[in-house]
Predict the structure of Bifunctional nuclease family protein.
Amino acid sequence: MVQVRVAGVALDASGQHVILLKPIDEIPGEGMLLPIWIGQLESTSILVAVERAPVPRPMAHDLMVSIIESLGAEVSRIEVTRIEEGTFYAEITLSSPLGVRVVDARPSDSVALASRIGAPIWVADAVMEDAGVPDVLTETDAAESLDEFKKFLDEAEPEDFEG
């Protein structure tokens, strides 16, 4: 397993949202990135958490945090465990009064949850080897992505976050 961080959320050439996970010991523009395609809502949720942007009402992943905490549990770690036929699988490890529990989850939900509470995110070595790509993101690309997100937040209305 390799520990990763959220390096960014971007749009691919076809307009699909993709989260980029990067080993924590690698600098931008070097090493590998793990791209995982996710939905627009999950993308927004991850960006809101990473940027610590205020939202008028709790989002679904904020609700997950509240439920976990109200049960006296905490998230120990997130793991992207495997990829099968192009689909990524993840697990959330919870420590609770009932002991350690491992819950199957989508990587997008897992990363959104981890981004809110600071839980470590891990990727199986085999997943990084199979699906990782060389990191060639430039600082200009990163700045443009951040500018796009800030513009989104400036234009967003409270109704955009209602479920």
